[in-house]
Specification:
Elements: H1 8-14, E1 24-31, E2 41-43, E3 51-53, H2 55-67, E4 72-78, H3 95-106, E5 111-116, E6 130-131, E7 139-140, H4 142-159, E8 163-166, H5 173-183, E9 192-197, H6 204-210, H7 230-242, E10 246-250, H8 256-266, E11 270-274, H9 276-287, H10 293-307, E12 311-314, H11 317-327
Parallel strand pairs: 1-3, 1-4, 1-12, 4-5, 5-8, 9-10, 10-11, 11-12
Antiparallel strand pairs: 2-3, 6-7
The structure holds ligand PBG.
Length: 328
């Protein structure tokens, strides 16, 4: 086996997996003024190098993303006001909507994906609306949530989003969003469904970044059990039936088997979300001098491609694109 490993040329000749900047999506947090302390950029402690951004700062990031050849940016919003229903999510003048419009105007060639969820907008931090079923703790009202999520997706499409990505994990939301987008004249806007999204400890830094930790309980009644793989495939197949155009597996590092399984079962384009905790682990270990950041990131991203991901959402996207340009 070693004959074909003897030189960079030979290794390049037989390399099975390719990683390109155009396959990478950069996650960005766009915040209303108070949520960023009145500043243009408010650094997020648990995610070194990532910040809550003003609309203008998000446009600057978008310019950089386009110059580096990234595939897209994905926007998350952090509002100043939250309420029970998360009504800020479908506010046409919300931070995400304003940022989408500004980015599409300034950098029209760059794809903009929006995360569709209520958790950043609800006072209780859950991904949908609550209902009292008279049996104790409030429960998440699936169908009422789906309606609000569809309204949110339409608001993003109206602002100019190129793709919408529901991350809430309510049942039936992909079908409802498809129907609503079609009815409102956005039949061409694809849905990137967070199909297999697990109730994961790896989202810790994100909840800090987006101020979206649930005020009570956890997300295990809607996000998936990390022990379940066959169920992830069922989720993916349902999303295909409901009209999803791309599927996502999230988190990424501990879920390579499911990236592969979803890819094989559906033949659909699959995105892997290299989440905040995965980013923070690499950053912290590199800062401590325990690992080489560049080599580790490129190894991780390549391995996700090898597992079957067509697209990777990662906070390392800009650095990775720079490193790829240097090595090629
Ligand atoms: C919103 C959402 C979350 C993430 C993406 N969209 C948080 C969650 O479900 O708690 C996590 C992303 C990351 O950790 O990088 N529902």
């Amino acid at each position: 086996m070693r004959r074909l490993r003897a030189s960079a040329g030979l290794r390049g000749l037989v390399r099975e997996t390719e990683l390109r900047a155009s396959q990478l999506v950069l996650g960005l947090f766009v915040a209303e003024p108070h949520a960023r302390g009145g500043r243009e950029r408010l650094e997020i402690d648990s995610m070194p190098g990532v910040a809550r951004l003003s609309v203008a700062a998000a446009v600057a990031e978008a310019h950089e993303a386009a110059a580096l050849g990234l595939g897209a940016v994905m926007l998350f919003g952090i509002p100043d006001e939250k309420d029970e229903d998360g009504s800020g999510a479908w506010d046409d003048e919300g931070a995400v909507q304003l940022a989408v419009r500004a980015i599409k105007q300034a950098v029209p060639e760059l794809l903009v994906i929006t995360d569709v969820c209520l958790c950043e907008y609800t006072s209780h931090g859950h991904c949908g609306v609550l209902r009292d079923d008279g049996r104790g703790a409030p429960v998440l009202d699936n169908d009422a949530s789906v309606e609000l999520l569809a309204r949110t997706a339409v608001s993003h499409a109206r602002a100019g989003a190129d793709l919408v990505a529901p991350s809430d994990m309510m049942d039936g939301r992909v079908g409802a969003i498809r129907e609503e987008l079609d009815a409102e004249g956005f039949a061409d806007v694809p849905i990137l469904a967070y199909s297999a999204k697990f109730a994961s400890a790896f989202y810790g830094p994100f909840r800090d970044a987006a101020d979206s930790a649930p005020a009570f309980g956890d997300r295990r009644s809607y996000q998936m059990d990390p022990a379940n793989g066959r169920e992830a495939v069922r989720e993916a197949l349902l999303d295909v039936q409901e009209g999803a155009d791309m599927l996502m597996v999230k988190p990424a590092l501990a879920y390579g088997d499911l990236i592969r399984a979803v890819k094989e079962a559906t033949g659909m384009p699959v995105a892997a979300y290299n989440v905040s905790g995965e980013y923070a682990m690499v950053k912290d270990a590199a800062a401590a001098g325990h690992i080489d950041e560049r080599a580790t990131v490129l190894e991780i991203l390549t391995s996700l491609r090898r597992a079957g991901a067509d697209t990777i959402i990662t906070y390392h996207a800009k650095d990775a694109a720079r490193w790829l340009a240097e090595t090629s």
